[in-house]
Specification:
This protein is α/β, with parallel strands linked by helices. The chain contains five helices and six strands.
Length: about 170
Amino acid sequence: MTLRLVLIRHAKSSWDDFSIDDHDRQLNARGRRSAPAIGEWIADRGDIPREVLCSDATRTRETLDLLMEQWPTTPAVRYLQSLYLAPATTMLTELKTAKAPIVAMIGHNPGIGSFACGLVHERPDHPKYASYPTCATAIIDFDVAHWSDVSAASGRVVAFTTPRELLNE
C-alpha cells in the first residue's frame, strides 16, 4: 500500500506590525494569492487530502482555508499547537498519528524544510527544495501500510512546486 503526504509550508505572512505576536501573524497579499494557486495545483493533480494536520498559528489556518476553497471535498482537520514552529522530529511524531491514505501537513520553517529533506531518500533536482520557501509543496509517497511505519529517508518525492512557478512571479 502507498500512503501520500502533501507537505505544505504556510503562505507568505505579513511583517507589517511588529507588535503582533508571531503566532497571530496573518497572510499578506502575496500569501493570499499563493495559497489558492497551490490549492488548485493539488486539486488538478487529484491529491486532495482526506486528513489535514495543521499548525494552529493564524497564518497556517489562513493558508488551509484558501487551499480548501479550491478542493471539491473538505478533509478532516486537526489544528495542532505542537506543529507551531515544530522541529522535524515533532512533525514526524504527529504524522505517525494520521489515518487517511492522503494526508496534508501544514507547518513552518525551518522545521518543515528539514522534515522535507529528512523524509526522502533522494531530494528532487529543484533549487528550492532544501530552503522550502513559503507555500512550497511536496507530494511524497511512502510504501507502507500505516503512517506509524514511516521513518526517515523512506519517502519518494512525486512532485514539488512553489507558488512563484505557478503564478509566474
